[in-house]
Write a structure and sequence with these properties.
eight-stranded mixed beta sheet; alpha/beta; TIM Barrel; globular
Length: 503
């Protein structure tokens, strides 16, 4: 396999995604005739049979099947051939693909946008309908998030499993340590930090290590950069600030004299030039340092994509039926809303961002080749990204970066489970693991668009027909039909538009 080096990209080379390899599998069926009641939306069963499915596991191995998968309550108990015994219900998976539930490693629980209310259930339905069974919340109202987490764990809320990373920080080392202790005492699952000076960051990471808390770091344009995360043992770097910064030959990025980091247009315009300021050899050292230290990378490629094509972002087809008016209001360019920065956005800005993506893609590939762990998250609710849809787009962009679809699926499942410390519970289709599964109408290796909740057109035997979608999402053994979840979303949006006087 050809290696895509940073220096070649800087010289003008283009990353070309690896070809999608179609799985060749036997048409033989394990069990011929369904004999149990069909599973119902919203129910969990003592014994559930998922019949005749092709399995794509979360460890990067090829498709296998058809097999039967047996679920008892919230656990997978077998993955294999014919299954005997009595079952309370079954799902016929003939011609369909079963994957571990996706883990969305970068979300924000939001019940309002643009000064308008928006129900949490809107997010939950969109995530589940996109095959997301676990989310890591990296910044929201802690009390609300904790309440939702408890309800999800009890099965009293239709929602993914929720991990809460509570914000910490501080201007001095002692303040930073105290903030981590507060996170621990509150019972959060981990720590979320933003840009910090070097000394308090080192103290924060040391305290988190002592207390056994994992750390997600959204690095800013700050005194510290990813070398400090490497030294201190950060769990995941969110987005990508701090990585190219650490490879700039000397000093700062080539900002113009009137640059203002607090001006959103300035911030995002010049962010699109940051990778080009990095020295390729120094960047390779940074990537190797991250890989050696076990600092994973959650790039959220999806959340910045509007910057390279604003018109495409504004006219996504699912906005017609599923965009909540609160989000629509928030997405309107306004310097008062974080990420709504498209004021005076130019062709040159889009070109710079497109070039930035090519170097970013190459850096991700090199990081993986050097042993680094890549994860998947969406950061939706900002910059024209709709929950769930943004996550599927993340998978597409990782494929564009050059990763094989099986590796992209591993990033979204097994790798993400590892970063949560849940690698023995989540991210696999394997006996003993949690019954977090998704059944897809089609082979996502051939086309990730099959995973979108709205599906996609499929050309087959000279005709075009509707295809795709995650037909069933199973979380902790609870079975949810994607079509039912999306119809509920449509009703929420229609009601909200009527209440707000919109279309």
């Amino acid at each position: 396999m050809q290696r895509y080096s940073i220096s070649r990209i800087l010289a003008g080379a283009i990353v070309i995604a690896l070809p999608v390899l179609s799985s060749t599998v036997s048409a033989r069926q394990v069990d011929e005739t369904p004999s149990n009641p069909t599973a119902e939306h919203g129910r969990r069963y003592d014994r559930l049979l998922i019949r005749n499915v092709y399995v794509i596991d979360g460890n990067g191995t090829p498709t296998r099947g058809p097999v039967n998968v047996v679920v008892e309550n919230d656990r997978i108990v077998s993955v294999g051939g014919r299954s005997s015994g009595d079952f309370d219900a079954e799902i016929d998976g003939e011609g369909r693909y079963l994957l571990p539930g996706f883990i969305n490693l970068h979300v924000h629980l939001q019940d309002s946008r643009g000064n308008m209310p928006m129900p949490f259930q809107y997010q939950m339905n969109l995530w589940l309908a996109s095959g997301i069974t676990t989310v890591r919340d990296v910044g929201s109202d802690f009390e609300k998030a904790e309440r939702l987490k408890r309800q999800s764990d009890r099965g009293s809320l239709v929602a993914p499993r929720i991990f809460i990373y509570m914000r910490a920080g501080g201007g001095t080392p002692e303040e930073a340590r105290q903030s981590v202790r507060a996170v621990h005492e509150a019972g959060a699952d981990g720590v979320k930090i933003f840009g910090m000076d070097r000394a308090p960051l080192a103290a924060l990471l040391d305290e988190a290590k002592k207390l056994g808390l994992r750390v997600a770091h959204h690095v800013g344009v700050e005194e510290s950069d990813v070398w400090d995360d490497i030294a201190g043992g950060t769990t995941t770097i969110e987005h990508w600030y701090g990585i190219p910064d650490a490879a700039i030959p000397y000093g700062s990025q080539s900002f113009p004299p009137d640059y203002n980091y607090n001006n959103e247009v300035d911030r995002f315009r010049w962010a699109g030039r940051l990778f080009r300021d990095a020295d390729p050899e120094k960047l390779s050292l940074v990537l190797q340092g991250m890989a050696d230290a076990g600092v994973a990378w959650c790039p959220t490629l999806t959340i910045y994509e509007a910057s390279r094509d604003v018109q495409r972002a504004r006219t996504q087809p699912w906005f017609e039926d599923y965009l909540h008016p609160a989000l629509e209001q928030y997405f309107t360019p306004d310097l008062g809303s974080h990420g709504s920065y498209f004021l005076g956005w130019t062709t040159k800005d889009e070109i710079e961002w497109s070039r930035n993506y090519q170097i970013w893609f190459a850096a991700l590939r090199e990081f993986a080749e050097r042993g680094g762990i890549i994860c998947a998250g969406e950061d939706a609710g900002f910059i024209y990204r709709l929950y769930g849809f943004g996550y599927i787009r993340e998978l597409e962009l990782q494929q564009e970066a050059g990763f094989h679809p099986l590796d992209v699926i591993r990033h979204a499942t097994g790798n993400n489970a590892l970063m949560l410390g849940m690698e023995d519970e989540l991210g696999r289709v394997k006996a003993g693991y949690r019954a977090d599964l998704i059944l897809v109408n089609g082979n996502p290796q051939e086309n990730f668009k099959l995973l979108y909740p709205t599906g996609t057109d499929v050309y087959e035997d000279g005709a075009v027909r509707p295809g795709g979608t995650v037909e069933w999402t199973i979380k902790d053994g609870f079975c949810y039909r994607g079509a039912v979840l999306m119809e509920e979303v449509r009703e929420m949006v229609t009601e909200a538009r009527h209440s707000s006087g919109g279309r």
